[in-house]
Amino acid sequence: MNRLIGVINLDNELDHLKELTYFRCGAAVPFAGRYRIIDFTLSNMMYAGILDTALFIRRKYRSLLDHLGDGRPWDLDRKRGGLFVLPPDWNDPTDTSKGDLQHVHNNLDFFKRAAGEAIFHSGTQHINKVDIGDAYRFHREKGADVTLVYRQVKQLEPEYAACTRLEVNEDGRVTGIHQEQGHHNIYMEIFIMDKKLYLQEAERCIAHGDSNFFRDAVQRNPDRLHIYAYRYDGYHALINSVESYFKHSMGLLDQKQYQALFQSRPAHTKIKYEAPTRYLDGAEIENCLVANGCIIGGRVENSVIFRGVQVQKGARISNSIIMQKCVIREGTVIENVILDKDVKLSEDTTLIGSVKSPYVIAKNTKM
């Protein structure tokens, strides 16, 4: 959809995944056996035909940039348009902008040159399959200044505690934006706004010394702007803590949840050419999500296994997430554990966490 310009804003996403975000931003955290969290936002934009996508990024981005490359998996390796990583600061002594508004102010050329008339603005912590084209049609039909995307959740989970909530009338008009904990309309950190208005509001906020575009341009101006809300009802997983990451990762072992995320418009990711997983004699696998390139000789149940993992004979893994190229040696017992990439465990190691508080081992650890 060439009328839309994509913006992925990581500036306000805090790295709350403990060991998993020691060396990377949250958007680069591996998920579902072969993906990174940002892949789902990029894939939604790809299916909508968005040709220009800007990435607002400030810290711990080496791993993310290595994953994104030239943007080819999401059809963003273009001679015109494509993926643009926008730095927040050019060390301009006259620049008074702050927060995510710095990205807009210091990269006005991108927005002026991009071939689109509206902004589709998203974070990455809300994994979803929003139909961007349908949301944009809703935005146009309502004549909205801003359209916010929300999900009406049946049950309020702990990860929703920090979420903004929306009051929405029968016509879809937003009548309130707040943080009341008992409210079920969860704002998904996604909005659509016409480009001209977006740039005008950014300029106004900077002039007033503001630092957060959504809070200062949208949330504080419900009477001045025509704000509507587009309701999304598909797969949704909010990843903003180790506990929520573990819960939603393990949830994909349920076939219904897996199909909801991957059956139609599957996510795209960085391509890696690896051999199929090899199962040795005596290997036992039950209810697992296993990527390619692994060698498995032990018992693995109710677990997510990423690419290139080695599980030696006699090892036992249950209810765990094992990321790329980990080595689990003979006699090791793992339960309710998250191993980040390239962890090497010695023989006869025992690691046991709990479902509500999984044991996390940081990247490159040797035990």
TrEMBL record:
SUPFAM superfamilies: Nucleotide-diphospho-sugar transferases, Trimeric LpxA-like enzymes. Coiled coil: none annotated. GO terms for molecular function: glucose-1-phosphate adenylyltransferase activity. Residues 17-158 form the Nucleotidyl transferase domain. Residues 284-350 form the Glucose-1-phosphate adenylyltransferase/Bifunctional protein GlmU-like C-terminal hexapeptide domain. Belongs to the bacterial/plant glucose-1-phosphate adenylyltransferase family. This is Glucose-1-phosphate adenylyltransferase subunit GlgD. It comes from Paenibacillus enshidis. The lineage of its organism: Bacteria, Bacillati, Bacillota, Bacilli, Bacillales.
